[in-house]
């Protein structure tokens, strides 16, 4: 192979093949590319070295033959054509390429970035204008402008857009008369020409916005559409995902499609819409679950999902992480996960949506977003409504009763739980009564009444989410107001003395008859820690027992609240004791 270099241009002539390769460096700018185009013959290739190709005197690179213009490295981030948008008059044309080859010839533009192009006053195609077929592959086109739309490009019939990124262009992203978009291309906006008949096929690509107007026909396959604006035309979509839609006129046929917004189809549209789910690809649906985290006091959810299948995300697209989002006024990221080849994710989330028994359900919408290395390309699950449940009921109260002349007090220890609300007292006139409506509810640790009789009581705890504890053991008030609790003819238990105490305390009680008696000591968790009397027959009259502040194994009990429970025949009483350090 022999070659020669002139004006920064390297011309390579293969000895056998007829095609030639022209190597251009960035120092020659867009003029150097134009010189290579002028010298090239159909079928030749122009290879661009890495760098920035500036323009000073060309309205555009004019291409009128079937050639390939590509970067040597294949990396569009490293090979940039910089058009001087904004530096000249408001109606000047400063785009990258004008393409007008012969009918049937295709011009290929591969592996470049185009920045800052603009069309003339009444033209479309700020970055590229192609009146003849073009192949755009591995391009990045941004910050371009066209007054008539198609800021990134305007492509004629039989064109193909493959693995391109069209972003941050002014007044609309791209216009395409007829052709194919495929291989994970990304468009922030695709606008179909309202002044011409258009026919476009989109395969495995991502369009932030698709605008359909005029006599256009669009076929979508395995693609993701952010905003669909259908003013007219005909849309056929298969295995594609849509986030938002507005329909005025036209015909839209959706087969096996996913709609992220439940209000995607507005009822007042005049568009003819057909939806079917026959012969769907079973791997197309990407979903997630948001469920209550079990065994907590509320406030936690578990998000579960897998990696999306190749039917949703083209294998050439790389997912690097996932975001978990909640819908407030807008979608807010509240968690996430790094991509894993295992494809199984379980993430615990905090939420303020906690179900309260007896109240309306308070829920929020959640979704998973797959983040890719292609700027602007994301994939979404549908949104799911979820809320947390408080799965832990308060502990059973350990309650005590204190009888005095003219009053009766029920006492309990407030449980050490984060969502405690109140304790409710229930009263019955017979043992074994079934609690109905509470006599009173209080956030305090005690309750008193003065209208006494031989009543029976039970206590129940309630938390802020409506969960109820088991009822306490049944307590009994053992004498009416007019009866002295010191009388030996009634069952009574005095408050231990001293109380608080250290190291020991005395518990006095009276029995009306000879009864079998047990006197037990419990801690605040309800665990029995000592047995002072166990099923012992005692005569009627006054009795007393001493607790020396130890456990049954002889170890000293730590300071805190304890309860002594006296069981005498069918009679039960509990007293609250405080052991000091």
Write the layout of secondary structure elements.
Blueprint: E1 2-6, E2 9-13, E3 21-24, H1 29-39, E4 45-48, E5 51-54, E6 61-63, E7 68-71, E8 79-82, E9 97-99, E10 107-110, E11 113-115, E12 128-130, E13 134-137, E14 140-142, E15 153-155, E16 159-162, E17 165-167, E18 174-176, E19 178-182, E20 186-187, E21 190-191, E22 198-203, E23 206-212, E24 216-221, E25 224-230, E26 234-238, E27 241-247, E28 251-255, E29 258-259, E30 272-276, E31 288-292, E32 300-306, E33 319-327, E34 331-338, E35 344-350, E36 354-355, E37 364-372, E38 378-380, E39 384-386, E40 388-389, E41 399-404, E42 407-412, E43 420-428, E44 440-442, E45 446-449, E46 456-463, E47 475-476, E48 492-493, E49 505-511, E50 515-523, E51 528-538, E52 541-547, E53 560-568, E54 571-579
Parallel strand pairs: 3-4, 4-7, 5-8, 6-9, 7-10, 8-11, 9-12, 10-13, 11-14, 12-15, 13-16, 14-17, 15-18, 16-19, 17-20, 19-22, 20-23, 21-23, 22-24, 23-25, 24-26, 25-27, 26-28, 27-29, 28-30, 36-40
Antiparallel strand pairs: 1-2, 2-3, 31-32, 32-35, 33-34, 33-37, 37-38, 37-39, 41-42, 42-45, 43-44, 43-46, 46-47, 48-49, 49-52, 50-51, 50-53, 53-54
